[in-house]
Amino acid sequence: MRSDSAAQALEGLGADVVLVDGPDIAKRIAQATGRAAIQLGLDAVGGAATAQLASALAGGGVAVAYAAMSGQAAQIGPRDSIFRAVSLQGFWLATWAQRAKPAQRAALYRQLLPLLSAGLIRTPITRLAKPEQAAEALAQAERYEGKLLFAFGARHPA
Predict the structure, then answer these.
(1) Does pLDDT of 52 surpass 70?
(2) What pLDDT is attached to residue 146?
(3) Shortest CA distance to 90 belongs to which of 50, 55, 118, 59?
(4) Are 33 and 61 within 8 A, CB to CB?
(5) Measured between alpha carbons, how far is 14 from 16 in angstroms, rounded to an integer?
(6) Are 1 and 21 contacting, i.e. CB atoms less than 8 angstroms apart?
(7) Of 17-31, 40-54, 126-140, minimum mean pLDDT range
(8) Cross-strand bridge partners of residue 74
């Protein structure tokens, strides 16, 4: 995570291990996982954070960039990409949804719905905002004070 408050929020949701980003993150990941051979890393930050995540992966692992909250391009260093065969893959859900066949989307929903129904996957929504509250609501979201939804149309929150 990028901040202590974000880490605390995930711990509050039941996460087993949450680490705050920093220059020694690969070492702390190795310690926290008993030096497990991690094959997959998910990155929403970009820039140097992607490179640090990639360095924590096992040889042949894949770093998946699905956002760029830092505003910087996702990158991994030559040591990881060339000598350890760690790769970087981009993913954007909207692109996947456009390209996926209806049967693929249906299969995904069949897997996710039972997990959602059982409460195994949950996303607490802390604010429902009107479009005219966008600046304030987005500032709150950037501080990771929970998930934000915008209400459009006739049924706005009070």
Answers:
(1) yes
(2) 63
(3) 50
(4) no
(5) 6
(6) yes
(7) 126-140
(8) 47
Q: State whether residue 149 is helix, strand or coil.
A: strand
Reading the block at residue 48, the tokens are 């140097």
pLDDT tens digits, residue range 86-134? Answer: 999 999 988 999 999 999 999 999 999 999 889 888 777 777 888 888 8
Report CA Rg, the chain.
18
> How is residue 131 annotated by DSSP?
G
| Pair of tokens at residue 5 | 């408050």
Residue 150's DSSP bridge partners are 129
DSSP state at residue 23: T
Q: Is the distance from CB of 45 to CB of 65 less than 8 angstroms? A: no
Give one DSSP letter per residue of 45-102, joined into a string.
S-BHHHHHHHHHSPTT-EEEE---TTSS-B---HIIIIIS--EEEE--HHHHHHHS-H
Are 88 and 74 in contact by the 8 Å Cβ rule? The answer is yes
- Two tokens, residue 119: 């409460």
Structure token digits, residue 101: 């066949």
